[in-house]
C-alpha cells in the first residue's frame, strides 16, 4: 500500500462542512475561514514511541490520545475546536494499526466537531504530530498571564493516575489488576476538558493544562503572571487508587506526575459561584486547592498549614 492509498483509505473523509473549513484534504493547502469577531488559536504536540507512549498501547487508544493532548491545549485557552492536521511517520504501512488508530482519532474528532484538513505521512520510527486550530471570541482567550494575588486556584478532575500507571509499568509498585486497568486508562485515554475551558471564558483569570506535572505547569502560570501560589496538599484531587498509596508516591504523582490533561486555572474569589456553575454546565468536577499570592514561588502546605519540604520538578524531555 502506497502513501496516497494509505491517506485515501484511512484518513480522507467526505468534504468537511465544519465551521471555519472552506476546503480540507485534497489540495496543497487547506483553506480556513475564521468567523467574524473570532481569533484563531493554534497548538502543536508531538508523540514519539518510547517517549510519550509505550509500544503496547492499543492503536485505537493511541489515535484518541494523539488528538486529545492537542485538544487539551485548546481547552486551556477556552477555544472551540475547528480543524487539525496530522503528520505521521510509520515504520511500515500496517493496515490493522492504521484502522484502529484512525478509528480512535476520528471518534474523538467527531465528538468535538473538529475536522482533519491535511498533514503528511512518511516512513520512519513511529512519530505522531498533530496541530490543532480553534477559535475564540476576540480578547476572550484564557492565558497564563492573568493570575492575580487573591485569586483562587482550581483543578479539574483528578491528578496523578497516569503517573501511577507509569510507575506500575516501571515496576516500582504493584496494583491489583482492576485498579491498574483504571489508572492505565487515565494514562492512555485522557479526556480533554474542552467544554469546561469554554465555560470558563470571562470567569477564569488564567489557565493551563497539566501535561508535565502540576508543580511545573502551575509554575509557568506564576512566572508569566509575576505572582506566587500556595497549594493545600490535602485538597489536591486524587482517585481512591492513588489515595491508597504511601505519602511519597502520592506526592510524586500529584505534583510531578504529568500526562493528566486536566485544567489548572485561577479565578477571583468573587467568581466562586460562577466557577461552580461553569463546572456543572460542562459536567466536570473542579476542586479549589489554593490561592495566588504576591510572594514569588510555589509553596505546598500540609494539613496543619505548614510548608512541606519538597523538591518540586516537572517532566523535561531532555532530562528524563
UniProtKB/TrEMBL annotation:
Its EC number is 2.7.4.16. CDD domains: ThiL. Substrate binds at residues 52, 259, 315. Keywords: ATP-binding, Kinase, Magnesium, Metal-binding, Nucleotide-binding, Thiamine biosynthesis, Transferase. Pathway: Cofactor biosynthesis; thiamine diphosphate biosynthesis; thiamine diphosphate from thiamine phosphate: step 1/1. Mg(2+) 5 binds at residue 212. InterPro entries: PurM-like_C_dom, PurM-like_C_sf, PurM-like_N, PurM-like_N_sf, ThiL-like. The keyword Metal-binding applies. SUPFAM superfamilies: PurM C-terminal domain-like (SSF56042), PurM N-terminal domain-like (SSF55326). Mg(2+) 2 binds at residues 45, 73. Residues 148-300 form the PurM-like C-terminal domain. Residues 26-135 form the PurM-like N-terminal domain. Mg(2+) 1 binds at residues 44-45, 120. Mg(2+) 3 binds at residues 28, 73, 209. GO terms for molecular function: thiamine-phosphate kinase activity. ATP binds at residues 119-120, 144, 211. Pfam families: AIRS, AIRS_C. HAMAP family: TMP_kinase. Reaction mechanism of ThiL seems to utilize a direct, inline transfer of the gamma-phosphate of ATP to TMP rather than a phosphorylated enzyme intermediate. Belongs to the thiamine-monophosphate kinase family. Catalyzes the ATP-dependent phosphorylation of thiamine-monophosphate (TMP) to form thiamine-pyrophosphate (TPP), the active form of vitamin B1. This is Thiamine-monophosphate kinase.
